[in-house]
Amino acid sequence: MPEPDLYLLGRSTAEETRLQRQIADLAPASDAQFDRIGIKPGERIVDIGCGPGGALHLLGKRVGPSGSVLGIERSPHFVELARTFVASHALNQVEVREGDAYSTGLPRASFDGAHMRLVLVNVPSPDRIMHEMVSLVRPGGWIACFEADYVAHLCDPPIAAWSRLLDAYTTYSAARGVDLFIGRRLHRLLRTAGVEDIRTDAVIHVYPPGHDRRPILYDFISNVADQLIDGEYIERTVLENDMSELAIHLANPGVLVTSHVYYRAIGRVPH
Q1: pLDDT beneath 70, residues of the chain
Q2: Comparing C-alpha atoms, which of 267, 271, 241, 264 is closest to residue 29?
Q3: 156-181 pLDDT tens trace
Q4: DSSP string of 179-231?
Q5: Cβ(2)–Cβ(100) under 8 Å?
Q6: Contact 76, 11 (CB under 8 A)
Q7: Per residue in 207-235, pLDDT tens?
Q8: What integer pLDDT is reported at residue 8 of this predicted model?
Q9: Alpha carbons 148 and 252: distance in angstroms, whole number
Q10: pLDDT given at position 72
Q11: Dihedral of the alpha carbons of 61, 64, 65, 71, in degrees to the nearest 10
Q12: Contact (CB, 8 A) for 9 and 122
């Protein structure tokens, strides 16, 4: 039986739009990671949790028409969006299927490589997904993961509204079994799953006024506002006031906003 949809941020139209913007926002960082792997034309790749597009186009271009990329996505609606996205890039070598990251049902050791981006930071039991992904790759094949860690997500000058909202979101996430600081543990999850030759680096960005990702905390809180209030992680009036203050603060060009730390790890499945 497939797992229920455990995605932390929900499937709202606003979240759908954010994920579609994220495709372009994170493409340079993902492309740099793929450069380090040395993906070859003709390879067969699985992309776990591809969302409405993710990095499917980047992977598809690298394997070329002689290769294949299979995107696995839990949400039927996101599967349709991803298929439309792939078709818009005329990548016949890319397929998208509805599937469960915890138990894909795909043949073991049947891919040359596997990729996953910003999946584990949004779901519980990340170790189970990691083991499933690694099991799909042939001996000697590669694994690539890209995960967030909230340690550096801040604004300066700081305001109490940011801290209260982030604290409420962190507590809510932990109660659902989700670790917002999982990026730093990525190397350990890979090692425990049997991956070797692990290499890790990290990326952090500064989001200037007008950048799509500058209001990402505001966007996340908006996605789960009802759950935060219903679960008594924060009072409604406090949340509403803090969101108003945060919007004003983020609109100030004198305010600096830094991203999460994005940890990128690659490794090999042992022979």
Answers
A1: 1-5
A2: 264
A3: 999 999 999 999 999 999 999 999 99
A4: -TTGGGGHHHHHHHTT-EEEEEEEE--B--TT-TTTTHHHHHHHHHHHHHHHT
A5: yes
A6: no
A7: 999 999 999 999 999 999 999 999 999 99
A8: 74
A9: 26
A10: 99
A11: -60
A12: yes
> Looking at the chain, how many residues does it have?
271
Q: Which two tokens stand for residue 28?
A: 């340079």
Nearest alpha-carbon partner for 121 in 69, 170, 193, 191 = 170
Residues 71, 80: contact at Cβ < 8 Å? no
Place of tokens 């996953």: 116
Q: Which of 167, 177, 182, 178 is closest to 228 using CA atoms? A: 167
Please give the structure tokens belonging to residue 82: 């991803």
Task: For each of the domains in the chain, give its residue range(s) and CATH number, in order of start.
Answer: 13-268 (3.40.50.150)
pLDDT of res. 4: 59
Whole-model pTM: value is: 0.94
Query: Which residue, 264, 260, 199, is CA-closest to 32?
Result: 264
Q: CA-CA-CA-CA torsion for 165, 169, 171, 177, nearest 10 degrees?
A: -170
